[in-house]
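Protein modeling request. Please complete all fields; requests missing the sequence field cannot be processed.
Requester role: graduate student
Desired output: 3D structure, token encoding
Chains: 1
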Amino acid sequence: MVSGWSLPSSACRDPRIEQAAVVAAPRRVPVPWKEDEQPMTARKTGRKSVAAWCATAVVAVAAVWLSGPTVARAAAPEKFRVYLGTYTEGGSKGIYLCELSMKDGSLSPVELVAETESPSFLAIHPDKKHLYAVNEGQATVSAFSIDAATGKLTMLNSQPSQGGAPCHLTVDRSGRHVLAANYSGGSCLSLPIVAGGKLGAATSFQKHVAKRTNGHAIHVAQANRFAFCCDLGQDKVIIYRFDADKGTLTPHGAFSTPQGAGPRHFAWHPDGKTAYINGETDLTLIACSYDAEKGELTQTQVLSTLPAEVEKKGGSTAETVVHPSGKFVYVSNRDPYNSIAIFSLDPKTRELKAVGHQAAGVKTPRNFAIEPTGRYMLVANQSGGNVLVFEIDPQTGALKPTGGETKVPRPVCVRFLDLP
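Delivered output (420 residues):
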């Protein structure tokens, strides 16, 4: 039972009520007086009568019966803000915003919230007050503040990416740095987040050395001690030791993918012990175990992202996403296959199994994302000029179109933010 709120000895002796009491019991908070010196109002109301206590407990029991173990969790949001990065061509002007309804999976029309050049990948700071974007054409990384009331963005500043075509970025787990990957020439860098959410000059820059190098994504492990940069040109994931105090990246090692895989994007399982990499050029999903102490990846599986009956003729994958539950992994196949590949994870053996594809309305799905509750997936159709919504079956991982759609030119990144 919860200290400070014990069950009356002669009333309501029902184990379900006792369980509900733990859920419903208020937390004890420090007060500036001793218990025997409470103000009169506190003494009068500080203890519940048996009848009042039972009434409260009965309400809590009803909540337990109706809602099961989720009664102690915060209520799911009714809506999410959705930020959309684009290529500024074909009518696009920058970063767009719409809202996802959690009631029916519908999307509101988009509005332009920041005019900026080709913000092809976005990252929202954990404080939910700042957003960062790569500007692929002008080789910069930009910082924006988020208006809590409207969701609109205000440009704070930008810094050079020190390489060509920056195409991916992430905020480290301490919230003090932005790490970005440059496609052209293959490199990555770390930018400090300074006062007011602005970006400072790079504290670290690493150029990949090989005949062909193409940095395509950068991620940090849960402990924030190692960073992983996918290099499509080298068929490697370059591993760096990351110092969050100094903002430095130091070469640590590399993981070699199968030859010709072309590692593009990288996703962590919620357990922090497993990583998934999509091979852009050979259309595969590569599963790896992760040793957090050594900062090493070990390949455990390689699966095709295409249906067994489909012969591979060109094409490429784009994005890898793990469901928040950790039960499913998804990969997007671009032209000519245009689908989302679905994989389930065996909870005992940790092996992946291909379980299906969803292609309805999908057209060059460069990026997609799953909102935090795990109910809906949003797919950005780069050449389709729209974003589609699919409902996720929590048992099988299957995707069902909701009919939700919003039009936006050249969408290539989807990011969610809670409404205040």
